[in-house]
Specification:
With 304 residues, the protein is an alpha/beta fold. The chain is built from twelve helices and nine strands. Strand 3, helix 8 and strand 4 form a beta-alpha-beta unit.
Length: 304
């Protein structure tokens, strides 16, 4: 049996089964730790540390990407950033699962949040064409859209559920928390649902750093690499004539920072489009300011 056939028929199903098993285990652990925030944090950091220590190939890739993105930082600092990123992601995953499964309420998950720039979002929504809100997988990245929904904004979030997650698991939880969710599915186009949400005057949240496969998206120079990034949401904003509002979480201070609206791209979307460049240069600046809170191990980002 050829290696490619073996990988597709045997190894890939085994990996997926392993991921489903790991997800179920994480849910069990999260429930067992419910009501014990210090223990949750300690266990999450322990898991993140193991992930860093026991996966040398992925660790080397993380450090290579960090050297490209932060060439001025010493190697020891990059190693600390890579390890801390995994620890923070593991803690965030446990806490998010606790909230989704109902063992932690939304107020506890959010903690004390300070918002800056709400006037920019209010101004954009007043136009009546909806708003495309763009964020990043930075820190507990679910906090920004959740806070916006809790503050009374009509939030619709576009999500991609991993295969190891039971279908509709996150969608149902988000709806219970006051967010409308659009799940990206292979057999159902998300574009009409996004357009409908914008035309209903909603704030549609997407993540700028949700990389796409090499056969899709628009190539962008981003953090020292040329990678394909999603073009669809910006094209939809253009079709709906909806403004684009960057909404970023500053993880250390638990701040939600809302920036002034940007116009939707005009004409065919190209790499040198001013709005596209402004968004990704802002995204780079945010990640470089908070590198220990970004997901350097995100698998599509890690590809060469």
């Amino acid at each position: 049996m050829k290696k490619s056939v073996l990988a597709k028929r045997v190894l890939l199903p085994l990996r997926r089964a392993g991921r489903r098993g790991l997800f179920r285990l994480l849910r069990v652990v999260a429930r067992a730790l419910a009501g014990h925030p210090r223990a949750t944090r300690a266990v999450g950091r322990f898991v993140g540390g193991l992930n860093y220590a026991l996966r040398p190939a992925e660790r080397r890739r993380d450090l290579a990407n960090l050297r490209l993105a932060l060439p001025e930082r010493p190697q020891a600092e990059l190693a600390d950033i890579a390890r801390e990123s995994l620890c923070d992601a593991s803690v965030g995953a446990l806490e998010f699962l606790q909230m989704v499964d109902g063992t932690m309420d939304a107020a506890q998950f959010l903690g004390p949040v300070t918002a800056y720039g709400r006037e920019h979002l209010d101004q954009a929504l007043a136009g009546g064409r909806g708003v495309l809100g763009v964020g990043l997988h930075l820190g507990h990245f679910g906090k920004a859209p959740l806070w916006l929904a809790q503050a009374g904004y009509p939030v619709t979030i576009v999500i991609r559920e991993a295969r190891q997650v039971p279908p509709g698991y996150y969608v149902g939880a988000l709806q219970r928390l006051g967010l409308e969710a659009i799940r990206i599915e292979r057999d159902q186009a998300a574009a009409p649902r996004v357009l409908d949400a914008l035309r209903r005057g909603r704030l549609v949240m997407i993540y700028l750093d949700q990389g796409v496969k090499n056969d899709g998206g628009i190539p962008i120079q981003f953090l020292g690499k040329r990678v394909p990034m999603p073009a669809g949401p910006l094209v939809l904003a253009r079709r709906a004539r909806a403004p684009i509002v960057p909404v970023f979480l500053h993880p250390e201070d638990h701040d939600v920072v809302i920036h002034p609206p940007l116009p939707a791209p005009a004409g065919a979307l190209r790499e040198d489009d001013p709005t596209l460049q402004a968004l990704y240069r802002m995204a780079e600046a945010e990640i470089r300011a908070h590198p220990a809170y970004w997901q350097w191990r995100y698998r599509r980002w890690g590809r060469d």
